[in-house]
Amino acid sequence: MNRVKALVAGCLMAVLAVPSAFAAVDREKLLTEPGVFGTFAVFKVDGDWWKLDKAARGSAAAEVKAVFQKHADNVATDTYLLRGLSEKADFFVRVHSIEMLNNQNFLVDLMGTTLGKYLQNTNTFNGITKKANYVPGFPDDLKAAMKTPPDPGAKPYVIIVPIRKDAEWWITGQDGRGAMMKEHTDATVAYLKAVKRKLYHASGLDDLDFITYFETGKLDDFNNLVIGLERVKENRHNKQFGSPTLLGTIRPLDEILEILAR
């Protein structure tokens, strides 16, 4: 009997020792691997929120923290402050998981909190990360340049630019699109140290085709980067570029809640 128990215990330990594809604490995989669903939920705080007394706002903030903790096993979250840089929204949350349902469940619970009842969900973008489509066809010198490590300094600013392509882009052959994307990428090389970028594919998951996410500490470099991208041929196929463009700062949840609870 003891031998059987030992075998069962050993099998159980072996099962528990097998890591999941994306462990709850492994943000790095969720932020770097393909096949991950990303949701950007943008919120504006209703004016009636500020009519609540400070104690009520503080209690509501604690409720929001509990929602983030409840879903920590299934989603990785990042929070950003738009207030002061946008009249259209106050903050947004970026949510990553291996199932879109997890993103939805988290946001449903967030909007069900006391604070959530005072939030207007001004925009929601949904996308998925994928392996690079065009990079394999780029020349070796460009591939090497794309591996330029970013500057080690802080990158407190975040910019979100949703993009929708026209029909001509999608019916253009792979070689034609590849040539335009090479020109596009050439225009970004000078800014790789100052601007960090992440791409989400949104076709069929949203009314967009791409969600582009940027972090930088140098908004002047980002401004010049966008001007450079507006000059390449690929830009002719951008049916939508921004609208909205979100400019904010990366802030921890506690700091955003403290601002909202003042």
Brief characterization of the structure:
This protein has 262 residues and is an alpha+beta fold. The protein contains nine helices and nine strands.
What is the CATH architecture annotation of the largest domain? 2-Layer Sandwich
- Total DSSP E strands: 9
- Structure annotation, total helices: 9
Mean pLDDT: 91
Q: Indicate the low-confidence ranges by residue numbers.
A: 1-23
Question: How many structural domains can be distinguished in the coordinates?
Answer: 2
SSE sequence, one letter per element: HHEHEEHEHEHHEEHEEH
Radius of gyration using CA atoms only? 22 Å
CATH topology (fold) name of the largest domain: Alpha-Beta Plaits
The main pleated sheet reads as:
9 strands, antiparallel
> Strand content of the residues, in percent?
15-25%
Tell me, what's the shape? elongated
Q: What is the CATH homologous superfamily assignment of the largest domain?
A: Apc35880, domain 1
**How helix-rich are the residues, as a percent range?**
25-40%
End-to-end distance: 63 Å
Assembly classification = single chain
Summing up helix and strand content along with how strands pair, one would put the structural category as: alpha+beta
Name of the CATH first level of the largest domain: Alpha Beta
